[in-house]
C-alpha cells in the first residue's frame, strides 16, 4: 500500500469533521435536556406560570426559557448538520469507486436505475388495462362527469367570522365547457 492509500481524502476529512461537530452538538443537547428534566428544572414543555397566572416560584423562569430556546436551536442545528453530513457522505461514496479503481481497470458498476426500468406500455395497452380495471364484471364504466365552471356573485353578504349564507351558493352561475 502506498502513502496515498493511507491518507484520508479531503472529502473524507470533511465528513469526519461534520460528524464530530454533530456529535458535539448532540452531547450539548443531551446536557441541556437533562438539566431541564432534572427535579426543579422546569421540564421541556410544562407551564411556567401557576394557576393564578403568576410565574412559578419553584423554578427560575428566565433560565428555563433560555434552556428551552437552546434545545430548539440545537435540535434545528443537529438536523441541518445531519442533512449536510448525509449529502456529503453520499458524494464521498459516489466518488469512491472511481477514486479507488486502478488507472487501467474498466468500470464494472451497474447501470443507473433508469436503464433497468422496463419500457412504458403502448398507449393502446394502457387504455385496455384501464378499461378492464374499470369494468371487472363486463359492466361498462359510466361516462366522465361534465366539468362545470362556477362563479359566485361578486358581492356575498358575509362577515370575517361567518361564512357566506347557503343561498349565496345557490345563486352561483354555472356553465359547462360545451355551452351555457
Short descriptors:
mainly alpha; 6 helices
Can you put this structure into words, describing what you see?
- Residues 109-123 have a biased composition (Pro residues).
- Pfam families: Nas2_N.
- One of its GO terms (biological process) is proteasome regulatory particle assembly.
- InterPro entries: Nas2_N (IPR040815), PSMD9 (IPR035269).
- This is Nas2 N-terminal domain-containing protein.
- With 180 residues, the chain is mainly alpha-helical.
- It has a domain at 7-96.
- The chain contains six helices and two strands; from the N terminus they run H-H-H-H-H-E-H-E.
- It has helices spanning 3-6, 10-37, 61-100, 113-116, 123-134, 166-170; strands spanning 149-151, 173-175.
- The chain has a two-stranded antiparallel sheet.
- The longest helix has 40 residues, at 61-100.
Number of continuous helical runs: 6
Strand order of the largest sheet: 1-2
| Chain-averaged pLDDT | 74
* Gyration radius, rounded: 32 Å
Distance between the termini: 82 Å
Overall structural class, as computed from helix and strand content, comes to: mainly alpha
- Shape annotation: flat
Beta-strand content estimate: under 5%
Q: Let me know the number of strands.
A: 2
Tell me which oligomeric state these chains represent: single chain
Low-pLDDT runs of 5+ residues are: none
- Percent of residues in helices comes to 40-55%
Largest sheet: 2 strands, antiparallel
Order of helices and strands: HHHHHEHE
